Amino acid sequence: MRRLAAMLLFAVGLLFADVQVHTFTLSGDEFLLDGKPFQIISGEMHFARIPREYWRARFKMAKAMGLNTICTYVFWNVEEPEQGEFNFKGDADVAEFVRLAQEEGLWVIVRLSAYACAEWEFGGYPYWLLKEKNLNVRSRNPEFLKLMKAYYEQLGQQLAPLQITHGGPILMVQVENEYGSFGDDKEYLKINEEMMREVGFDVPLYTLDGIDMVSRGCVEGALPAVDGSTNIGQIMDVVKKNNHGHGPFFVGEWYPGWFDDWGKPFRTVSTKDCVVQLDTILAHGLSVNMYMAHGGTTRAFMNGANMSDSDPYSPQISSYDYDAPIDEAGNPTPKFYALRNVIQKYIPTGVTIPSVPKTEPPITIPKFRLAYGTDVLHALPIPVYSVKPLTFEDLDQAYGYVLYRTKVKGPLEGKLEIIHLRDYGIVFVNGRRVAVLDRRLNQETCAVHLPDSLNTVDVFVENLGRINYGKYINDNHKGITKEVLINGNNVTGWSMYGFPFGAEPEISSRLTDTTQYPIIREGAFDLSEVGDTYLDMRDWGKGHVWLNGHNLGRYWDIGPQQTIYMPAPWLKKGKNKLVIFEELKTEEDAIEAIATPIH
């Protein structure tokens, strides 16, 4: 045993013998890397929004823009999708993402905070927190803190060894995210800071808040960073005021683009404005993280939503292109080259920005039919029965859809009202679609006519994404969250059929008749060569797409997104399988892929 132990120690010594040990510290108004002033020029990209097969390519492109650092969130609901079931594999392997960044010569900033925002479902919190009665996130609730600590302990095992203090690339870790826009509980912030230290994070910590919220969101022991401002004097004054009279000064989110909501125009930020803003930040010696350098795609059911007292519920689209300098498919844009020229002016003497990597041309796929189909009535799972309708969380269902069914004796004519529909409901009476209700439009009522019989009333409800920002984050249950009334009378006796679609839906029986119910369609196409491409959804209505088992995300004819990005690594030579779940245009059965996205 002693000999084996000695051999293991020797092997470990060889493994780390060539690791160059660096230091990263905060001194006065400067970041110091190996004791020398270091200007962080960072770009945000989220590992969960990029196919793992493309991580290295995205790093190469980021470095070719002149970035020296990559910043990423870690999403709790990706790493612990069910309580106690941690997942650090595939596209969720944050440690591998960090290691690859280091291999490509990039430093890393990790936004470790249990709360992310990021236009991500529930701000990154896992849905199962909502099953805990009286639990509020972003609070000192004991049960919440216990669950958060268990999560941080897992992240410590994954990421603490990758800090610069241990030979890794991680320079800094974020304590909480824009907390000043939510609350001002300094004790809660301190608990976050202490938890991160306890699980092994010993690099500098920072908080990030809007310029007017820094005093509410900062905490002793962490550098206050700012977002949403390029007013250099104001940035420096605010940071000094909240950091014992000195910096360093870090613009933790600078926006060369913006996110998009369903039913609203695609947002852009002019390249000219971006150039002026970035040049101003770098010329004054401030460090910066551009949000986003590359947005990627919010696949499956992971898009978030916004809501405030003045603005209605507004879910985000699946494309997270963000009008970023590196587009959704990883290609450099004109904005990329313009910002590259700015950064070139500020890189240290002797440092050379790599040449821009060559990208592969996209492919097209000729129109083909999805020959097989079945509606949800022919794919009903075992139901759950209840006197009153249950929420998704009561049903232990995170995402997707639930069909709510009840029987109502007629004749009856009047108003059907769903109290707190979350978020989108298609109403059927005796198999006929009678209404579509959309939370975005504050629609919760419709007229119904029930003949003189025992009528079947179905409400097919979709979770369009939990709120990720603001005070309503603790009011995030999905489904029919209160009650259903007809002419003011409570409707009871519900059967609930869950369609979580955690995996690609299967067609067990082929439908031959037309249907008004949401339909699952399946088809196949052959490829001689693979490449990135965009599925053209302009003829379709609303739903989800799976490619060879991968959930590519949502589509909806209200736009602005009209195509779905299909990454080359998920295609294959020969036969490929496509599954579409269509909620509205159930007669549609043909599709093609094109070379450019449509917003």
Radius of gyration, rounded? 26 Å
Domains (count):
3
Structural class: alpha+beta
CATH topology of the largest domain, by name, is TIM Barrel
Number of helices: 10
Name the CATH superfamily assignment of the largest domain: Glycosidases
What share of residues is helical?
10-25%
In which order are the strands of the major sheet placed? Answer: 4-5-6-7-8-9-10-11
Distance between the termini: 64 Å
Strand content: 25-35%
Structural account:
The chain is an alpha+beta fold and 599 residues long. Strand 25 (484-486) and strand 26 (489-490) form a beta hairpin. The chain has 3 domains: 36-344, Glycosidases (TIM Barrel, Alpha-Beta Barrel), CATH 3.20.20.80; 365-371 and 504-594, Sandwich (Jelly Rolls); 388-492, Galactose-binding domain-like (Jelly Rolls). It is globular and about 85 Å long. Mean pLDDT is 95; it is low at 1-17. The strands form 8 sheets. Strands 4-5-6-7-8-9-10-11 form an 8-stranded parallel barrel, surrounded by 4 helices. It is built from 10 helices and 34 strands.
Please outline what is shown here.
By secondary structure, the protein is α+β, with helices and mostly antiparallel strands. The protein has 10 helices and 34 strands. The strands form 8 sheets. The chain has an 8-stranded parallel β-barrel with strand order 4-5-6-7-8-9-10-11, surrounded by 4 helices. A 6-stranded antiparallel beta sheet has the order 16-27-17-23-20-21, with no helix packed on it.
